[in-house]
Amino acid sequence: MRGMGAGQHYSGMRFSINIPNFGDFADARTVAMAAVAAEQAGWDALFIWDHVVHDKEERRGQPFGDPWMLLTAAALATSRIRLGALVTPVARRRPEQLARQVATLDSLSGGRVIFSAGLGGPVADEFGSFGEPTDPVVLAERLDEGLELLQRYWSGARVDHLGKHYEVRDVTLLPASTQQPRPPVWIGGFWPRRRPFRRAARWDGVVPLFTGASHGHVPPVDELREVVTYVHEHRKEHQDKPFEVVVGGVSPGDPDKARDLIAPLSDVGATWWDERQLMTTDALHRLAPIMRRINQGPPTL
């Protein structure tokens, strides 16, 4: 597997900053400021969460911002870094509206959008709170059908569709996405569940999460190797196309220690390191600690 062209870092590895869309980062001006700092410090991308309430008990009283509005502010303030939501629950959105949002941002940013999708969660809070279906089988069906519709909408071609969950009659959404045939599509999922990784194999990248390594914790190298091997086996007809493997966690400020942490992940196939804060601390959604990490710059391998 290989990345999307030669990066400026060792082995084509690229580096992103990951922030939630709540707390200090509910404010679009704050997100724009973080994006500018990330671009200036040499990071390759800024990714933002796509949640409505997240965990209601944990986040009660915290403000949230719409991820596409926040990313628009980031796009207007920058010129180089890639931008996207990590990850968007397609089943929680109308595909035609989502297609418009992503295509508009892709145009505004000059083709810098990366689109990441997944089932979404916590399901009870993010779906059930609003009377939406919570059956993961139904959500997975909507995700797959929605992804196919998004791809067709972004092409700028006429769409007619009669599916299990969506119906489209004689619709052409223009402009098409700036990136053609589509913005890169990455798929998130929890390993060792297999279905999300078979889904990822059909697209452009995988964002594996691990049941034994929660947000901000570095994944075990052996488990990542299993993921890369599994996805590779299911991409036999797409071996000639670039494919991204995105992992993340908290990297130490010391360059040697960061290299010791990330290089083994790169060696087994990771192409992106996504710098994340631990879910269990307020640093997750506070500007000051995130800016300190951004300004230190990405790890160097």
Automatic annotation (TrEMBL):
Record-linked SUPFAM superfamilies: Bacterial luciferase-like
Start and end residues of each Luciferase-like domain: 27-194
GO BP terms in the entry: alkanesulfonate catabolic process
MF-aspect GO terms: alkanesulfonate monooxygenase activity
Keywords noted in UniProt: Flavoprotein, FMN, Monooxygenase, Oxidoreductase
Pfam families: Bac_luciferase
Matching InterPro entries: Luciferase-like_dom (IPR011251), Luciferase-like_sf (IPR036661), SsuD_RutA_monooxygenase (IPR050172)
Taxonomy, superkingdom: Bacteria
The protein, known as: Luciferase-like protein
Natural source organism: Nocardia ninae NBRC 108245
